[in-house]
Amino acid sequence: MQYLTVKQILLIHSMIIDETSGSHGVRDTHVILSVVESPKQAFSGKELYETIFEKAAVYARDIIMNHPFVDGNKRTGMTAASVFLENNGYKLSAQKGEIANFGLRMVEERLEIKTIAKWFEGNSIKLNE
């Protein structure tokens, strides 16, 4: 399992802002450190987020809902989840508009990890190895 690093998340954010406009800047470094560790959490030797899609959901939700950046949190959250999936053998098959709409829906409906994971699973394809 290839998890995202702080450096990768910061790079994703910088590239998103450069590509789509907005303001660069980290609002809360501690949130980014938490985002990096959250998908790895375990209790009594059992992973809290067992599937690749749950882990992607944690990246997306934690960045989108906890606002570590000055701007572009929804774009960064969805892109970070997408990069994580690609690093681990899956590609998002949803179109850009669908991805952005789902990012908004996560905020508006305060979706739970299981619901977000189900969306990622239904909108991803396995890459050939």
Describe this structure in words.
This protein has one domain: Fic/DOC protein, Fido domain (Four Helix Bundle (Hemerythrin (Met), subunit A), Up-down Bundle). The protein is built from six helices and four strands; from the N terminus they run ααββααβααβ. By secondary structure, it is mostly helical. The longest helix has 15 residues. The mean pLDDT is 95. α3 crosses α6. The chain has a two-stranded antiparallel ribbon with strand order 1-2.
Short précis:
The chain has 129 residues and is mainly α. Helix content is 60%, strand content 8%.
CATH homology superfamily name: Fic/DOC protein, Fido domain
**Major sheet, described briefly?**
2 strands, antiparallel
Mean pLDDT metric: 95
Examine the secondary-structure arrangement and name the CATH architecture.
Up-down Bundle
Query: How are strands sequenced across the largest beta sheet?
Result: 1-2
Which percent range fits the helix content? Answer: 55-70%
Can you tell me the CATH topology?
A: Four Helix Bundle (Hemerythrin (Met), subunit A)
What is the class in the CATH system?
A: Mainly Alpha
Q: How many domains make up the 3D coordinates?
A: 1
Q: What percent of residues are in strands? A: 5-15%
Low-confidence stretches: none
Task: Note the run of SSEs as H and E.
Answer: HHEEHHEHHE
